[in-house]
């Protein structure tokens, strides 16, 4: 009888302990104060996180948001150092093409409520954040680039719908307007030059962006496309060293370039410069009838695998996807929302049209080798080097 009483007492004590543990965990999120550390960039995204954090805390007084500046391009490397050391964030912003690196490194947690999140965001965003069949992170903005045009230099009915027409128009414009350019673009960035490799559905790392055995960067379609890219030198006779992003942005901002390929991030600077401009989809490649395929990017908030508060971090990240927060982010940063919501912008339709022909930058780790290799190949090709040899070297650098 004594043994039975002791057993009952022991079971009761264990049950009470488990109940207390459960209550303590629940209390940590609802009673005790939790501070979430969030890494983000300066110049807009920081202000968004601060204001979004204040709005979230009003709804959840037990949670406060602490902003720390870590730039988007540095966060993936920094989390690998700070996370294991216990000094990292609960949430951090990173571009989706770092996803494979982050997942394989064990630095991020899967998306909570993944099916719900997928149903709320743009399909291009959910696809971009899916790796090996599982979704990671929360897409807070989408992006791609398109064709900007200066209405003082080219009328809307003159906007070329294919690259051959653009080249001819630019040559004629250049002859009639010394010191100005029919079009400019950063020809040494693989972010932009990838468009010339995409004819006939050709895609970097295959249709799903995961084929590491066939990069397709030196496929027949890529070679043909980059040969056409090289021919554009006759319409923009400037060496690669003088056609980087800064100089091209400056030319359009100064009103000396009629057309320019860039993204939403330049709307505010161009408006402040007093340029009356519009945005249209990219011209079609030779042989195609639809806009050239551009890279699409997704900026995401990832929950750190090292966070002590993953549930709260996930909830705040999901809060950033609400219509109110997406509107706030657009108003502060001008970034394209990651959900289907209308924003007050006369330029958004051009980007949305282009987004329909865009494809997510591959997020496999091999993508890390693409940038330097393709940037170098693009510059060399523009300056007259052999296209096949340059793309073969690019393919080899990625494969290695």
Structure overview:
The chain is of the alpha/beta class and 400 residues long. 44% of the residues lie in helices and 15% in strands. It has 16 helices and 12 strands. The strands form 3 sheets. Strands 1, 2, 3, 6, 11 and 12 form a 6-stranded mixed β-sheet that branches. It has a 4-stranded mixed β-sheet with strand order 8-9-7-10. Helix 2 links the parallel strand 1 and strand 2. The termini are far apart. Residues 1-30 have low confidence and may be disordered.
Secondary-structure map:
Elements: H1 2-30, E1 34-40, H2 45-59, E2 63-69, H3 75-82, E3 91-95, H4 99-104, H5 114-120, H6 123-128, E4 130-131, E5 134-135, E6 138-143, E7 145-150, H7 163-176, E8 181-184, H8 190-193, H9 220-231, H10 245-253, E9 257-263, H11 267-272, E10 277-280, E11 295-303, H12 310-319, H13 323-333, H14 348-355, E12 359-360, H15 367-382, H16 387-399
Parallel strand pairs: 1-2, 1-3, 8-9, 11-12
Antiparallel strand pairs: 3-11, 4-5, 6-11, 7-9, 7-10
Helix pairs in contact: 2-13, 15-16
Average pLDDT over all residues: 91
Low-confidence stretches: 1-30
State the shape.
globular
Q: Give the class from helix and strand content and strand pairing.
A: alpha/beta
List key phrases describing it:
4-stranded mixed sheet; 16 helices; disordered N terminus; 6-stranded mixed sheet
Short account of what is shown:
With 400 residues, the protein is of the alpha/beta class.
């Amino acid at each position: 009888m004594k043994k039975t009483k002791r057993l009952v007492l022991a079971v009761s004590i264990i049950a009470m302990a488990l109940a207390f543990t459960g209550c303590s965990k629940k209390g940590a999120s609802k009673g005790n104060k939790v501070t979430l550390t969030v890494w983000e960039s300066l110049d807009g995204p920081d202000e968004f996180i601060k204001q979004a954090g204040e709005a979230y805390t009003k709804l959840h007084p037990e949670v406060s948001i602490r902003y720390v500046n870590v730039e988007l391009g540095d966060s993936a490397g920094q989390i690998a150092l700070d996370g294991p050391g216990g000094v990292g964030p609960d949430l951090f912003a990173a571009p989706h093409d770092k996803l494979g690196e982050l997942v394989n490194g064990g630095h991020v947690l899967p998306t909570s409520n993944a099916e719900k999140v997928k149903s709320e965001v743009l399909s291009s965003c959910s696809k971009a954040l899916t790796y090996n069949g599982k979704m990671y992170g929360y897409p807070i903005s989408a992006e791609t680039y398109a064709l900007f045009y200066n209405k003082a230099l080219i009328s809307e009915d003159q906007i070329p719908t294919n690259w051959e027409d653009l080249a001819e128009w630019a040559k004629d414009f250049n002859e009639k307007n010394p010191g100005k350019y029919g079009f400019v673009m950063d020809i040494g960035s693989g972010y932009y030059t990838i468009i010339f490799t995409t004819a006939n559905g050709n895609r970097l790392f295959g249709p799903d962006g995961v084929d590491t055995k066939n990069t397709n960067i030196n496929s027949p379609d890529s070679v043909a496309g980059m040969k056409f890219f090289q021919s554009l030198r006759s319409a923009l006779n400037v060496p690669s060293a003088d056609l980087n992003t800064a100089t091209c942005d400056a030319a359009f901002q100064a009103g000396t370039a009629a057309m320019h390929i860039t993204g939403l991030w330049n709307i505010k600077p161009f408006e402040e410069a007093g340029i009356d401009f519009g945005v249209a989809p990219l011209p079609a490649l030779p042989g195609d009838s639809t806009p050239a395929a551009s890279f699409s990017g997704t900026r995401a908030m990832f929950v750190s695998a090292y966070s002590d508060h993953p549930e709260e971090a996930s909830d705040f990240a999901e809060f950033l996807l609400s219509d109110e927060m997406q509107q706030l982010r657009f108003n502060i940063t001008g970034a394209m929302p990651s959900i289907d919501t209308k924003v007050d912008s006369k330029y958004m339709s051009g980007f949305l049209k282009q987004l329909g022909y865009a494809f997510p930058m591959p997020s496999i780790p091999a993508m890390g080798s693409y940038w330097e290799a393709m940037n170098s190949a693009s510059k060399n090709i523009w300056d007259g080097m052999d296209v096949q040899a340059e793309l073969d070297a690019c393919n080899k650098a990625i494969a290695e």
